[in-house]
């Protein structure tokens, strides 16, 4: 397991689920929730993939966190949106692209994915890619527990994670978002440098807190306060992702509105799997459809 602390609430709107309302990763224990957790103890966390073989033409390369990873334990029996999108593109173009899914199931943050690209292990894949899909940032949302974050709180339990989110100030959100945005801009620049003519599609992050049972159990006042923080952070992150994507000539696909409504506060519900973090089959289908709508085959 890469870290014994709780991951940000990206694939984990339920602490204890990737994370549960906050991906509670306690000393060797993975909890799902509002942020992405590491792989279960019985299964080693996936290391950053290496892609060194010569890629075929028409390749679809996927980079990022566990949202596109499609781990069996996240959504048993599901067809992930990456493979579904590739199949739909194949039907439209008369031949499906070969998929190299180099996403990670280890709680990767934007900085981790940037480091993966800078190491050069995905250079060959990027050079041969017709399309690159990037999913990054889910694990950089509140609560900001990382030592380098501008505001840090205790997040060793679901209750502490919720308390930390509620205490997060607008100033903290702005500062933390700016810091992650700088890494994200560098990540996109590195991808574009290695794939100058490739179609780049980025995904924003959805809200896995609203509707999370641990948060609902705190009552309407705490639930509303936490949602205010989460939605503000996700909206700022969406704006940052889309602006930086446009700067490199890519296409930004928003998932906040499709999963959580125009105000970002509608519970994702059946769009999320049992961990209330990763997409369910309905959620995978929704992401596939959003990808197809944004980038007509």
CATH fold title = Rossmann fold
The SS-based structural class is alpha/beta
Q: What's the total count of β strands?
A: 8
| Integer tally of domains | 1
Low-confidence stretches: 1-32, 37-45, 52-57
Q: Order of helices and strands, N to C?
A: EEEEHEHHEHHEHHEHH
CATH C-level class is Alpha Beta
GO molecular function: hydrolase activity
Signal peptide: 1-32
Region (Disordered): 35-58
Pfam family, one: Lipase_GDSL_2
Note the topology.
Layout lengths: L15 E5 L4 E2 L2 E2 L28 E6 L16 H13 L5 E3 L8 H9 L4 H5 L1 E7 L22 H10 L2 H25 L4 E5 L9 H4 L3 H28 L3 E3 L2 H5 L20 H14 L3
Parallel strand pairs: 4-5, 4-6, 6-7, 7-8
Antiparallel strand pairs: 2-3
Helix pairs in contact: 1-9, 2-5, 4-7, 5-7
Structural commentary:
Keywords: Hydrolase, Signal. It comes from Agrococcus jenensis. One of its GO terms (molecular function) is hydrolase activity. This is GDSL-like lipase/acylhydrolase family protein. The N terminus is likely disordered. The chain has nine helices and eight strands. With 297 residues, it is an alpha/beta fold. The chain is 38% helix and 11% strand. The chain has one domain: SGNH hydrolase (Rossmann fold). The strands form two sheets. A five-stranded parallel beta sheet has the order 5-4-6-7-8, with helices on both faces. Strands 2-3 form a two-stranded antiparallel ribbon.
